[in-house]
Amino acid sequence: MILLTRDGMGSGELELQLALMGKYLGLLLAGDLTPQALCFITEGVHLVCEGSPVLEALSALERRGCRLLVCTTCLEFYGLKDRQRVGTACAMPDILGAQLAAAKVVTL
Q1: In the β-sheet with 106-107, what is the strand arrangement from edge to edge?
Q2: Confidence (pTM)
């Protein structure tokens, strides 16, 4: 399971963070690698919303069976509830359950 807590990867400029995230997701797709789940919390919820440059890659992973779990509290906090385009909005117990079921959790 991969936990996404930021708009992108790393802590550089947002443009660089998004470019890195795009490359990361692209490599998952190209390598035919499908995580059990991607969980989006805090700033990470921006990645599943309208205008995100990685929506297509996330949608492709979802079609492959990767669960995209999106924190509803975070969507509401950022005012993004109506802009979510991929994934399933869920509560923290769902995210916790996915973490506990995973053999390994990687945080990006």
Answers
A1: 88-90, 67-71, 37-40, 2-4, 106-107
A2: 0.94
Q: Are 39 and 3 in contact (CB under 8 A)?
A: yes
Nearest-CA neighbor of 48 among 95, 24, 13, 82? Answer: 82
pLDDT tens for each residue of the chain, 108 residues long: 999 999 999 888 999 999 999 999 999 999 988 999 999 999 999 999 999 999 999 999 999 999 999 999 999 999 999 999 999 999 999 999 999 999 999 998
d(CA 27, CA 95): 24
